Amino acid sequence: MNIAHRGASSYAPENTFAAYDKALAMGVNHIELDVHFTSDDHLVVIHDDTVDRTTNGSGPVAEHTLAELRSLDAGSWFGLQYAGERIRTLGEVLEHYKGRHYFHIEIKARNVPGLATRTIDLVRGYGVTNDVTITSFWKTWVDESRAYAPDIPTGWLVPMGPGSQWDDSIAEQAVESGFTQVCPRADITTPEIVEKLHAKGFVVRCHGIFDEDLMRHVVECGADGMTINFPDKLIQYLKTKGN
Ligand code: G3P
Ligand code: CA
Question: 165 or 111, which is more confident?
């Protein structure tokens, strides 16, 4: 799986239609996206807890209404040609790309009861149950998703926190929880870890691919996929390997 991370985010502002379109133009039909709640209870697609880095606004996402978030420019920070790109609701993204993209939804917010359940209700409402994997670093959300919708694949992003290391108990916990995927950070991934996870029946999908060396490393480890900001480079690399 070549998954455009927040869309093809090396080439267009992350988590916008421009970045998701760019992925399609490259022939990539898997996207990763991040969800948060607004102050008036809507699910929106944005990575950070605040709007400061990726819009012309400021402050926590959770302290803005949907109308306030919609009024922000989510493109100019990346390049003036992207002025007018907007923060989208999860529903808008699912509706717009239904049948064209597979969605790897990462639940970001922590202290919002029922966020996984709400996310899944939307997924069902838009009829994209077969084209979604629910992921999070927060095991609570992955467990909630698994319990509420056992038919929808789940992926646990591990380990929590930059610099933290692999621990075999992660695989044991994932088995107990019945997750579909384990998603280790690329720099700690080894062929042995991938083999262990495969032996337990997991799909192994890596994250944290910051450069092409890590991209190649993940492929060499035998993982099943990765989220990547430059999916075009992965296509090229896989071609050199005869894929
Ligand atoms: O693929 C998961 C990856 O997106 C997790 O990291 O910080 O980019 O959301 P982050
Ligand atoms: Ca993410």
Answer: 165
78: pLDDT confidence band, cut at 50, 70 and 90? very high
For a mutational test of ligand 1's pocket, the pick from 2, 5, 110, i.e. the residue with the most ligand atoms closer than 8 A to its C-beta, is 5
Tokens describing residue 141: 């959300």
**pLDDT per position as a tens digit, 217-233:** 999 999 999 999 999 99
In whole numbers, what is the pLDDT of the chain averaged over residues? 97
CA quadruple 2, 226, 112, 16: dihedral positive or negative? negative
Give me the active site residues, please: 5, 47
| pLDDT tens digits for range 143-167 | 999 999 999 999 999 998 888 999 9
Q: Quick one: which atom of ligand 1 is closest to the CA of 5?
A: 4
Q: Which domains does the chain have, with CATH numbers?
A: 2-240 (3.20.20.190)
Residue bearing the CA closest to ligand 1, atom 2: 207
Any residues with Cβ below 6 Å from ligand 1, and which? 5, 32, 34, 47, 106, 157, 207, 227
